[in-house]
Design goal:
single chain; alpha+beta; four-stranded mixed beta sheet
Length: 82
């Protein structure tokens, strides 16, 4: 995992080493991952208190084993009721 920061955004970059981009249904991946990310991010004090309540969006970008983009999902303060 690599992290970066941008204007009002904290970015997590994940490399899924057992997956190739051509074997992923991108829409299904995003539809499945987004609710899980929102729940985990909104309920974790270190992300909700330190980032979301302060107006910072958390961006999760996923890449395959060859560093090809799979999906990017944002969890915004609004997703958590802030």
């Amino acid at each position: 995992m690599v992290t970066e920061a941008a204007q009002a955004m904290f970015i997590y970059k994940y490399r899924l080493v057992d997956i190739t981009v051509d074997r992923v249904d991108h829409q299904k991946f995003a539809a499945t991952a987004k609710p899980q990310l929102v729940k985990a991010t909104c309920t974790r004090p270190e992300t909700s208190e330190e980032f979301l309540k302060k107006g910072v969006t958390l961006r999760y970008s996923y890449f395959d084993k060859d560093k090809k983009h799979i999906a990017t999902l944002d969890v915004t303060p609004a997703d958590c009721g802030f």
